[in-house]
From TrEMBL:
UniProtKB keywords: Nucleus, Transcription, Transcription regulation
UniProt source species: Anaeramoeba flamelloides
Record protein name field: Taf9 RNA polymerase ii
Record localization: Nucleus
Chain positions covered by the region annotation Disordered: 118-171
Length: 171
């Protein structure tokens, strides 16, 4: 007895009956999963239809047919009939093609409509020159507050620089 499960063997037989000889082994698993999901959903719907008809768990052929019909309508797209497609193709093909502009090759949109245009500008300022300050007499309380004042001044400068860059970026 072979070690291949019956479901896998059945799917391989279907593929060989359709003259499909060369396929990836994962195809069999994908088809098996599709069949399993399809059958499970149809049986669940048929069971709910039987319950709705007060037949508890007794599923009959009509429940299965109705479940298949509803499943196909909800999950698969119907192909329009050939005469309709032919008429649609004739209507579309009766319209002339647009005449290309004077340019040949790939026609790209203007730079203003692309993402390659820079949308920001960076302005660098020269460093500020430090003024020479006159020497003052500094008392003890001034020297204690000085590091704190310097830190606050640096934070304020950083915030000002960030605000300036945001304004320039928006322009």
């Amino acid at each position: 007895m072979s070690s291949v499960p019956n479901d896998t063997r059945a799917i391989k037989d279907i593929l060989s009956s359709m003259d499909v000889q060369d396929y990836d082994p994962q195809v069999v698993l994908q088809l098996w999963e599709f069949v399993h999901n399809y059958a499970s959903e149809v049986l669940d719907r048929a069971s709910s239809y039987a319950k709705h008809a007060n037949r508890s768990e007794n599923i009959n052929e009509q429940d299965i047919k109705l479940a298949i019909k509803n499943h196909v309508e909800m999950n698969f797209q119907k192909i329009p009939p050939n005469p309709f497609l032919f008429k649609l193709a004739q209507e579309r093909n009766s319209l002339p093609l647009r005449i290309p502009r004077g340019k040949y090759g790939i026609i790209l949109p203007e730079d203003d409509n692309t993402t390659i245009k820079p949308n920001y500008s960076i302005i660098t300022k020269p460093p500020k020159k430090k003024k020479k300050s006159k020497k003052k007499r500094i008392n003890k309380t001034q020297t204690e507050n000085q590091p704190q004042q310097q830190q606050q001044q640096q934070q304020q400068n950083t915030l000002n620089n960030q605000n300036e860059m945001e304004i320039e970026k928006d322009n």
